[in-house]
Amino acid sequence: MIILNKQIKVMERALMRDFENRMIEHLKEFAPKHTGLLPEEDLRKIIHLSWEKAKRYDLVSERSVRIYVQLVLMLGYDFDSDPQFPWAGELLSDSSIDNEVERADRLHDKAWEYFEHSAPDFGNTEGDFNSSRFVELIRQVRQERNDILQPSALPEFQNRMTTQLRKTFPKKCEYIGESGLGQTIQHSIESAKKHGISTERGNVLFIGLAFILGSGFDTDPRLPWVSVSLNDSKSFDQNERVNRLLAETVNFLKRWWAYNQ
User: Fold this and answer.
1) Buried b (16+ CB within 10 A) or exposed e, 77-107
2) Total structural domains in the chain?
3) Which tens digit of pLDDT belongs to each residue from 48-73?
């Protein structure tokens, strides 16, 4: 029997759709508050993109891919290269662990170690959500100036942000360490620059969002509202785009808080 390439592609799409359906049902049980904020088609896109990314690390079994998708949902689409989670890229690229199940399990265990350590910053061990730290961060952004962040002021600005993040998110900062914190701040400043954001206010917002949502938040398929705000072709004024991003961030957090009541 001859099977044409066209038929193979149809079967592959059907298999992928079945996998997506199983993943959606699993994710709704695993992280109902995260999935509740996403339309189903966005969720399918995230599953598909994460599956493709997992294959780069030779994670191909359904169980391994499921773990990878879970971490994308919880840590961000670029968690594998996020300076906040250096252990992720190290484990995924560790050639000495040739068994994909073992690599996926170690990745899962390390992620849960991080979640348990950082939980007090975002709520408590019983799962009760605390919005006060997020409110404090938003308040700080609103108080920042729209002055351009000059290269000569970078050291003082980075020190100030390090102090603020340690105060607002002490457990997470303790876990990622001084190096991870410094690299996250630097990465956020570089990301802001790529989007034409150079003000102190804009940089504080980028750093805060990277810390809460993941360092790749600006291109994350979980957060389509970010790219819409940053890539508004009608607005060339960076202050307008920062204001829009801040407003959309507040809207997002309000919806998140509503799911956590």
Assistant:
1) bbbbebbbbebbeebbeeeebeebeebbbbb
2) 2
3) 999 999 999 999 999 999 999 999 99
